[in-house]
Design brief:
The structure is a single chain. Helices cover 39% and strands 21% of the residues. It is α+β, with helices and mostly antiparallel strands. The chain has one domain: 2-Layer Sandwich (Alpha-Beta Plaits), CATH 3.30.70. Strands 4-1-3-2-5 form a 5-stranded antiparallel beta sheet, covered by helices on one side. Strand 2 and strand 3 form a beta hairpin. Helix 2 packs antiparallel against helix 3.
């Protein structure tokens, strides 16, 4: 009986820790990366994941990030960031790095595939403005 109680407690904690949605959402997202499409689906978000992981490790910070899918007919999606927990200097550095990264990636994609969709950044978007996307907001991994 004791082991059953410990197992149930473990299962409950595991479910809470690794659930797909985050119930504590901010009022606005400081940055939203919008992955568009021109004909053949959006580009992969691998470059952004790599950058965020490296930034977090290098600066010893945690960046809260979610993904919202179903934002168009060709698989468009948005990556939303909450930077409220970042110190001022780290936030400035991240925003500057994201701007350069997205610009460079768009240039690279245009050279490789002239019809690839663009990635754009939107700043200070209220959480309610993601209504055009059909998918659920999930933790970005």
């Amino acid at each position: 009986m004791k082991y059953l109680g410990v197992f149930c407690l473990f299962l409950m904690l595991y479910t809470i820790t690794y659930s797909q949605t985050d119930s504590i959402l901010p009022e606005k997202y400081e940055v939203v990366a919008s992955f568009g499409s021109m004909c053949c689906g959006p580009v992969a978000d691998t470059f952004l994941k790599t950058y965020i992981k490296q930034f977090a490790l290098k600066n010893k910070v945690s960046v809260r990030v979610w993904q919202k899918a179903g934002c168009g007919r060709e698989g468009e999606f948005k990556i939303v960031f909450s930077l409220v927990n970042l110190p001022g200097a780290a936030k400035k550095k991240l925003l500057k790095g994201l701007k350069k990264l997205v610009r460079d990636q768009n240039d690279k994609n245009k050279k490789l595939h002239s019809n690839s969709g663009l990635v754009s950044l939107v700043y200070d978007m209220p959480t309610g403005e993601l209504t055009n996307c059909r998918g659920q907001l999930t933790i970005w991994k």
